[in-house]
Design goal:
CATH topology: TIM Barrel
Strand content: 15-25%
Order of helices and strands: HHEHEEEHEHEHEHEHEHEH
CATH class: Alpha Beta
CATH superfamily: Glycoside hydrolase/deacetylase
Structural class: alpha/beta
Length: 302
């Protein structure tokens, strides 16, 4: 029985293991598509978080925010991944990013580093950190901040516990936060609570719709087809262009719980490099002058 047939048989009886791709092995096609990353066409840059944070005020209360496009210039794009790590998709995504030299920002619910799969998740996240990726918090239990937790006390509990879970298991002090479902980014009360917790919400302006579930019986394959997700990203990227600009810009959101992201990533990276995009990593503290390793999602060093 071939590996694919074995996996399909397992799906039918309800005991499917993670589908192919949970390893870090790359196909010949993947390597061919990512070869462009080794040319002088490839560009990446670090952007200081403090340089994109804006202070606003409502009813005498100041709060931090970051514009959805992070005020990035034309042709600059930041990759963000929500809800992982996932055994089926994250290792392959990690391998693809490493092969291209692109850094990602991974937003992790606190529940991922607890429970039966915590040991694997913590090891995978430490691997991401060691390779230069940024880890942010995605709350403790992933509730909506506008429909689920609506009181100041409950929101603060989600913020604190989500951050503390990453601090305790990864020895980092994250400052980037991603609102679950993106809900609340335009609510000054929500943003005030996030600021009060020592965090700032990083939203997005380039979407993928990869979380729309059309195949609930395919674990790790939720969402649109890979081609549909890629087309959605292309349209959203085109829409992000400002008047007179040739290239789009901003923050892309996808989910590393969706194996289709791993499937489309080599093609997406190839197209972005070929078109002249620069890949962005957000680094440093919320406020300049502080120790960056105490104020961002990178490993501390003794």
């Amino acid at each position: 029985m071939t590996p694919l047939l074995s996996w399909l048989t397992a799906v039918l009886v309800g005991v499917a293991p993670p589908p192919p791709g949970r390893t870090r092995e790359l196909s010949t096609r993947d390597r061919e598509l990512l070869a462009v990353c080794q040319t002088d066409q490839f560009r990446r840059v670090d952007v200081r978080i403090a340089s994109i944070v804006e202070w606003r005020e409502r009813r005498g209360r100041p709060y931090r925010t970051i514009p959805p496009d992070a005020s990035l210039p034309e042709g600059h794009i930041a990759f963000t991944f929500d809800d992982g790590p996932d055994e089926r998709a994250t290792p392959k995504i990690r391998a693809l990013l490493a092969a291209c030299g692109v850094y990602g920002h991974f937003f992790i619910p606190g529940t991922r580093v607890g429970g039966p799969k915590a040991r694997w998740a913590i090891a995978e996240l430490k691997g991401l950190l060691a390779e230069g990726h940024i880890i942010g918090t995605h709350s403790a239990t992933h509730p909506s901040f506008t429909r689920g937790v609506v009181t100041s006390r409950d929101r603060r509990r989600e913020l604190d516990r989500g951050r503390e879970a990453l601090e305790a298991t990864l020895d980092i002090h994250p400052v980037l936060f991603r609102l679950p479902y993106g809900e609340g980014h335009w609510d000054s009360e929500v943003l005030f609570e996030i600021s009060r917790a020592g965090l700032v919400d990083l939203h997005w302006n380039i979407t993928s719709d990869d979380a729309k579930d059309k195949a609930p019986k395919e674990p790790g394959f939720q969402g649109l087809t890979a081609d549909e997700v890629l087309a959605r990203i292309e349209r959203s990227l085109d829409f992000s262009r400002r008047p007179g600009e040739r290239l789009g810009h901003g923050v892309l959101v996808v989910h590393d719980t969706n194996y289709r992201i791993a499937a489309l990533l080599p093609t997406l990276l190839n197209r972005l490099v070929t078109r002249g995009y620069t890949f962005v990593r957000f680094v440093g503290p919320l406020v300049e002058g502080r120790d960056a390793e105490e104020d961002t999602g990178v490993p501390r060093r003794d």
